[in-house]
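Q: Hi! First time doing this. I have a protein sequence and I read that you can turn it into a structure. Is that right? Here it is:
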Amino acid sequence: MASKTVISASRRTDIPAFYMPWLMRRLELGFVETENPFNARKTTLDLRPESVHSIVLWSKNYSPFIDGCYAEKITGMGYRLFFQFTLNARSIILEPGVPCLRARLEQAGNLSKIHGPEAIEWRFDPVCFFMEKGRGLVSNNLAGFEEIASSMSRIGISRCVTSFLDIYRKLKKREENAGIRFIEPDSETKLRTIEYMHGVLKKFGMKLRLCCESGLLGDSPEIKEFITPGGCIDSRLLMDIHGGSISTRPDKGQRKTKGCTCTESRDIGSYRTQPCFHNCLYCYAA
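A: Yes, that's right. Below is the predicted 3D structure, encoded as structure tokens:
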């Protein structure tokens, strides 16, 4: 019997916020055509329930997903769900298009109540350091981290995944228009930051996982005990939650040299034809 597939929906855009009718149509048809973003090669992917182990949804705003009762519709078709929820402190500069923090925390509570907290990964991602034009002070987006951690712990979330902003060349024009300049923190600053985040999470019985930050953990036994490299798609976790048997091989399409521990999945959605309207300043996909 062929191994079932994990569907990632999606690293390329925010499907739960903007493209659920499209996803539902693809599930009804039982297949989707995907396009390789590097060479535009198209392939057809089997989406029938008997071929899919689980669907991993990624979003910063699950309100349209929840209001449309899509979870009930999708699970009623025989699919199993896992949720990647990127939930940062609200910043008009960095994330102008996301709802207020209170609304997003309510969404997290709703998802946890229906699907269980084990099926939700909280992402505080990315951690950003920046300077505003005309000011010499370096700021970051960590101000609301403890408030979010407290709220997430109350609904049973036990994991937080984070990474530091990768400063791509395409960000330069957006930086200029926003009147800020992103800063690449040195290793010492990064280490102090994850020690702070670990300290906050430890108070709430939560653990911190690092995404694509190889070499940052150092030699501290305290840090290594509570902070581990993290894979956004973790087949072992998905099997623990949903049962079944799926590949545990590393995903060759991800940044393994940076420390990515994701296991195999298939991304659907499109950078080119399905733009995300959150308009996050740091977005690598825009």
